[in-house]
User: Fold this.
Amino acid sequence: MAASSPLMSTYLPQPLAFSHGDGAWLYDMDGRRYLDCLAGIAVNTLGYNHPRLTAALREQIGRVIHTSNLFVHPLRDQLAQMLVDRSGMRNVFFCNSGLEANEAAIKLARLHGHRRGIATPEIVVYEHAFHGRSLATLSATGNPKVQKGFEPLVPGFVRVPLNDAEALARVARERPNVCAVFLEAIQGEGGINPARSEYLREARRLCDEHDWLLMIDEVQCGTGRTGRWFAHQWADIRPDVMPLAKGLASGIPVGAVVAGERAADLFGPGSHGTTFGGNLLAMRAGVTTIEVMEDEGLMKRAAAVGERIMSAIRSAFAGHPGVVDVRGQGLMIGIELDRPCDDLVEKALAAGLVLNVTASKVIRLLPPLIFDEEHADHLVETLAPLIAAKVGG
Ligand SMILES: Cc1ncc(COP(=O)(O)O)c(C=O)c1O
Assistant:
């Protein structure tokens, strides 16, 4: 943004404004089209101007947008029940963003610790994790750049490496104040790093053994993106606490923390709250998003289309040392190069693709879940030459 912009300079946005979108395509002010492989950072589940979502939102706006949590409403119960049914968990608290859902999870963990008689409860968190930018969630985040300048950090976090079962076992032996384990099923901002299924199962076992809450941040990887409702379901486990946001309402701000049996009664009247959380426009968007995903079979498609993209990139660069790894699940894909590649964002835009680079060397693809085979092939045909030009090949 130019120095004269009235916005604070927290982002350095591309000098490109989109006028509208249609399906998986975005159009700039001059009418040029771009294939969207980012979905507003894993938000626009149904792409742009999905007829059912647009109609539902129009209708809801004409009816009522917000009444507050001081009044019940069947839409709020409906979306909560949908999440309960699909997660096998018990109760939901609605908020407005990922960090708010994670903040609620951290509060639940502390309540659980206090209930167990621990005066200074600790939560296990992870290297390279990202949980948001409030003081508590940036303290839980495993990236010094996110924390710098905001010290003192919120205490009560113990950090371990991902997928290291021995490190978690050591915490169990040495830290009696631990009350929860908090991790992303697939780290997003950290570089598309999946928690291995065996690791998630071992974390579940340790949580059961030590009366810790297993809290899985599904803000980025949840809501069908990986081909299951929630990414942890690939490991056949169930968390005690699951924060959600991003794709849940296809672009309308929403957050939710879903709690299982061991955490569902920790909050009581007055112990947590939010003005906008559970607003009826977001609830309608969430209900419609889930209904459309099911009616159009989008999760199954996400799994297949994601596999098609990953295998095409893998075979295009088989044996090439410049492409270190292609990983992910469904439509949450990371292509790790052997060198920094932030410049690929601009080059991709010039080629008509919207994508993202995270952890400096990882091309991150998070397309809308309406992506089909044709979109996938267009993406690979456009992206592969850009990668080849970058790594030589
Ligand atoms: C895993 C995860 N948790 C939390 C957040 C924070 O969400 P929000 O930006 O909505 O506060 C993000 C955002 O990227 C995320 O990827």
Q: What stands out?
A: The domain at 64-295 is CATH 3.40.640.10 (Aspartate Aminotransferase; domain 2). The chain has two domains: 18-50+297-391, 64-295. The chain is about 35% helix and 20% strand.
